[in-house]
UniProtKB/TrEMBL annotation:
SUPFAM superfamilies, A to Z: Helical backbone' metal receptor
Protein name in UniProt: High-affinity zinc uptake system protein ZnuA
GO molecular function: metal ion binding
Organism field: Amaricoccus macauensis
Region (Disordered): 119-171
Signal peptide: 1-20
The keyword Metal-binding is annotated on this UniProt entry: no
The keyword Zinc is annotated on this UniProt entry: yes
Entry-linked InterPro entries: Bact_metal-bind_prot9, ZnuA-like
Family membership: Belongs to the bacterial solute-binding protein 9 family.
Keyword annotations of the record: Ion transport, Signal, Transport, Zinc, Zinc transport
Gene Ontology biological-process entries: zinc ion transport
Any Pfam family the entry gives: ZnuA
């Protein structure tokens, strides 16, 4: 029997349905999601998070405290198995009385398919192409028709994880501020059903967060405009949503989405891309060794930088998410403009 299941069995005996003051207990998967939920719960409560700073969401061994968090939860908010496939079974086994909100399937969230190849095809938006799926949400999210007090989310939020999603989806959906705004609205609705007494606060917080995301998206889009057309490669393919939101496409990734180190053929293809002379910058990440990036860029004029898509170096809380997006913009700008 798995360690998390043994720990969870012991924890279930102590599980309660809410805090002493009736505020729902909320468990989240990663720090960016915890930050979004914390913004919605501001002034009411604080959500917990399973993955600590610096942990790899694609491969993580749960601790007894993580099992306790799940077994105590009234609401579990997670991206879904597209990001943390190992978490689906513990959620079903331990969070037995909780509402499960899987963001990849939640209303208003746009998902993108996984990109299979290391060197990517050019991502070009035609003149006037409208890709505001929910970019309209990030730039002034309209909650009409999304009643925080009466939304029925059965079936969409509280479902088995063995369902077939069809084509593989990119799980890094939080890196688009429009998705973050939609996620906040979904969280507010779920919390309002669990805690009607604080429904107005959750709704107002979600609306405020959506407005902030609109301002953030405009700010970052303006900052990144001068960088359009400057090719770069990333360590692993985690940034597609950021690229899509701000029209800043990567030329390729060194590793696959799960962060597993690539084989010789993939390294050779990326090195050829770098050696062609068109790449301006190659990015590594705090969770991975920079040695592979150094090997690929050796003997070239390609600059190197670091991207943190999980907020590993940022203090947890409501401010983490906007700080994360601004930090990515700053790091892209520094490397691609030659200021790193």
């Amino acid at each position: 029997m798995r360690a998390w299941l043994l720990a969870g069995a012991a924890a279930l005996g102590a599980a309660t349905t809410a805090t002493a003051d009736g505020v729902p207990k909320v468990a989240t998967d990663i720090l960016p999601v915890q930050s979004i939920v914390a913004a919605v719960m501001q002034g009411v409560g604080e959500p917990g998070v399973i993955l600590p700073p610096g942990a790899d969401p694609h491969a993580y061994s749960m601790r007894p405290s993580d099992a306790q968090l799940l077994s105590d939860a009234d609401l579990v908010v997670w991206v879904g198995p597209d990001l943390t496939h190992w978490l689906a079974e513990p959620i079903d086994a331990l969070a037995t009385h909780a509402v499960k909100l899987e963001l990849a399937d939640a209303p208003g969230i746009e998902t993108l398919p996984v990109r299979a190849d290391g060197p990517f095809e050019a991502h070009v938006h035609g003149d006037g192409e409208d890709h505001d799926h929910a970019h309209g949400a990030a730039e002034g999210h309209d909650h009409d028709g999304h009643d925080h007090d009466g939304h029925d989310h059965d079936g969409a939020h509280d479902h088995e994880h063995g369902h077939d999603h069809g084509a593989a989806r990119d799980g890094h959906l939080w890196l688009d501020p429009a998705n973050a705004a939609a996620a906040a609205a979904d969280v507010a609705r779920a919390l309002a059903e669990l805690d009607p007494g604080n429904a107005a606060t959750y709704g107002a917080n979600a609306d405020r967060f959506a407005a902030e995301m609109g301002e953030l998206a405009s700010e970052v889009r303006e900052e990144l405009k001068p960088l359009h057309g400057k090719p770069f490669i990333v360590f692993h393919d985690a940034y597609q949503y950021f690229e899509h939101a701000f029209d800043l496409p990567a030329a390729g990734s060194i590793a696959l989405q799960d962060g597993i180190e690539p084989g010789p053929a993939r390294v050779a293809a990326i090195r050829e891309k770098v050696g062609s002379g068109g790449i301006v910058c190659a990015f590594t990440e705090p969770e991975f060794s920079p040695k592979l990036v150094a090997t690929i860029t050796e003997g070239t004029s390609v600059a190197t930088g670091t991207l943190d898509h999980l907020g590993a170096t940022i203090d947890a809380g409501p401010a983490l998410y906007p700080d994360l997006i601004r930090g990515l913009a700053r790091d892209f700008s520094a490397c691609l403009s030659g200021k790193s």
